[in-house]
Amino acid sequence: MTCPAHLIRTGGDRIGLFVLDGLGGLPHPDHGKTELEAATTPNLDELAGRSSLGRVQLLPPGLTPGSGPGHLSLFGIDPLQLEFGRGLLEALGSDYALEPGQIAARGNFCTVDGNGLVQDRRAGRPSDAECRRLCARVMEEVSVDGVTIELIPGKQHRFTWIITAQDLGAKVNDNDPQVSGKGALPFRGQDPVSETTAAIATEWLEKAKQCLGEEEVANSALLRGFSTKPHVPGFAERFHLHAAALAVYPMYRGVARLVGMQPRDAGAGLEDQVAAVKSAIAEDYDFIFVHHKDPDTAGHSGDFAAKVVAIEAFDRALPGFLESGLDVIAITGDHSTPAVMKEHSWHPVPLLVHSKRALPNLESTFGERACLHGDIGTIRGPELMPLLLAHADRLDKFGA
Amino acid sequence: MTCPAHLIRTGGDRIGLFVLDGLGGLPHPDHGKTELEAATTPNLDELAGRSSLGRVQLLPPGLTPGSGPGHLSLFGIDPLQLEFGRGLLEALGSDYALEPGQIAARGNFCTVDGNGLVQDRRAGRPSDAECRRLCARVMEEVSVDGVTIELIPGKQHRFTWIITAQDLGAKVNDNDPQVSGKGALPFRGQDPVSETTAAIATEWLEKAKQCLGEEEVANSALLRGFSTKPHVPGFAERFHLHAAALAVYPMYRGVARLVGMQPRDAGAGLEDQVAAVKSAIAEDYDFIFVHHKDPDTAGHSGDFAAKVVAIEAFDRALPGFLESGLDVIAITGDHSTPAVMKEHSWHPVPLLVHSKRALPNLESTFGERACLHGDIGTIRGPELMPLLLAHADRLDKFGA
């Protein structure tokens, strides 16, 4: 509990949370500056001089967050305390709002030999188009009485498997043997409602194998990570905020929806996002999450220069965001993706919080090392939301 | 839980943890520098410029750790959550690997008068040689049927009392009345297996008193802190690390053994330790704990200059350690021992973590105040191991 619920007011200033995906970086071996420090960011630096600075640690020291947990942490939820299965993350990643009463699992198309042993757990990694065709065919031809079963195609061999029915449980084992040369495991439920789910999955799989038997690419499927939608109290309930999400990629829209934000059309670029912020404010949203994916993509590629460019692009868009009518502006990342590591890392991410209640350092800039000396210090992810509520004059004093 | 077990990989880089005992200090009244800041440490300062810096807080604010708890905290165990008695610490301090089925207690030789009242709880602090002689005599002459009883001599009046037998409990009260002029308390067990232990202790004490009756130095003994070996999952189980301990003093070897490290011959000086690190790496150890006792000894003596010298000696040995084949190098203390206090203190200790994934500050040095501005911030002791695993590329990402 980072903020007692009774302190949260129903009104206050408007908050914009700008997540530059994978923002945090490490020094370039040639010049010793991080991507953010090396970038030419006059607007961010000017804003830093009139903002509170600090760092956000998304998970305990040393733990590297995936994108889902990183965002959940920023949104006020301790990811280590929230049990959610692979199936849920897949559904979110497919921009699918899993509802109570639904079960999701991660699916793989695969191949099995004449003895029922798994040959290739990924069916030779078919094209996305092939995956879409296979999903459509199975949905068309396979049904189980009294149940709706959807297959949402993903990349290559991957799909999300979603069933809708009454009284289903998710305590069902994966049938994936994890290695080739073994048979798929039978589905078993750990309790009566999960036995129902296991029986449905078993019947569906038998029918799907018959349907796929004529296919060359894949003749069976593996399901894992059966999950329901966890109970996550929404932004309205928890923070009294009417929240919008301006994110292009399905995963981020899905995570935002999970915490009760309304995903909105964000267009394709940063200029579209500036317009989308203005339109959300016009519709009385008082919390707007803006997601900028490019720094992370460049970091994963190990392309230091491209990550600098992605950060500079945000800097150029910043004046537009500043004029859009937001009162509190937070700029941070969901994790670090140092180009020198080519992957996510555990390093805390820089944080800038601008409001008329900020305590700036003199002559500061926005960068990893500058943020070390900021007013905010290093806070845990779930501590960010109460801080933003405070800057937005949305928290009562605790005690008389 | 600072790190979910499923994230820990089975391979990765090699880690060296260098504990400079009692490293942290306070400013000298004449010049305002701490021992570490006053020391001439070109190698540590150079390494600091390419490392992450921070501080470790071994226990909650204000709490001063003993050497055992300080090391346990660094080794990933919250000492406040681990129940272990004085007897265990004494056994560890005697380099005795207490095993399941054994009970250890801290013993004092003492004097009692004709009425059975304790005169001197420490028997006039006899010489270590006298203590060894008394222990040997009691072990020679006193026995209890079906039980093995060992006395391991310590400094002055102190010894460790260890019994080995089936089905013993450790819930036995101290017989030490804590003040002179009172009688020793009878041993009582809180449960049936502890009643057995109490009965053995009672029988042993009666016989020991008869044996010691002819001695001038001491004619009885006090036992306290009855304890068994607590269950502590080892480094292999918890962190998938094959860990070696290079420590000279028995206490540190004992604590390292408790957490599953293999104590190895560390020689007498720092140059021997450099050679011992290389030999441990040659034998495929992937975690090496190196203990340097001298700063603490000087701190206890209140000898600021000697503590500076002890730190400078480590600095001179550092290049050897850097070339020994370790990938991740952490340098810190198990607690502060400021010379101006002449004892342990609660102040967080400086921390340096060197790896190719570090985020250094520019122009930094290794000192209490410099570490305040480091990338790592101030972390709790049990958070250190996950951080080192991350630097060693030994942790999976949490979530997709």
What general outline of chain A do the C-alpha atoms trace? globular
The computed structural class of chain A is: alpha/beta
Number of helices of chain A: 13
Largest sheet of chain A: 8 strands, mixed
Q: Looking at this structure, what is the CATH superfamily of the largest domain in chain A?
A: Alkaline Phosphatase, subunit A
* Proportion in helices of chain A: 25-40%
Number of domains of chain A: 2
- Oligomer kind: homodimer
**Rg of chain A, Cα atoms, Å:** 23 Å
Strand fraction of chain A:
15-25%
Distance between the termini of chain A: 20 Å
CATH architecture of the largest domain in chain A: 3-Layer(aba) Sandwich
Q: Determine the most extensive contact between two protein chains.
A: A-B, 36 and 32 residues
Give the strand order of the largest sheet of chain A, numbering strands 1, 2, ... along the chain: 9-8-10-1-11-12-2-13
Order of secondary-structure elements of chain A: EHHEHHEEHEEHEHEHEHEHHEEHEH
Low-confidence stretches of chain A: none
CATH hierarchy, class of the largest domain in chain A: Alpha Beta
Kindly state the mean pLDDT of chain A as a whole number?
A: 93
Account of the protein in words:
Two copies of one chain form a homodimer. Chain A has helices at residues 35-38, 42-48, 67-74, 86-93, 128-141, 192-212, 235-239, 250-258, 270-282, 294-300, 304-322, 368-371, 384-391, and strands at 15-20, 52-57, 102-112, 118-120, 148-153, 158-164, 220-227, 243-246, 262-263, 287-292, 328-332, 349-354, 377-380. With 400 residues, the first copy, chain A, is an alpha/beta fold. Chain A has two domains: 8-82 and 233-391, Alkaline Phosphatase, subunit A (3-Layer(aba) Sandwich); 87-227, no CATH class. In chain A, the strands form two sheets. An eight-stranded mixed sheet of chain A has the order 9-8-10-1-11-12-2-13, sandwiched between helices. In chain A, helix 8 links the parallel strand 8 (243-246) and strand 9 (262-263). The longest helix of chain A is centred in the middle third of the chain and has 21 residues, at 192-212. Chain A is globular. In chain A, 53% of the residues are buried. The model of chain A has no long low-confidence stretch (mean pLDDT 93). The interface between A and B is medium-sized, with 36 and 32 residues.
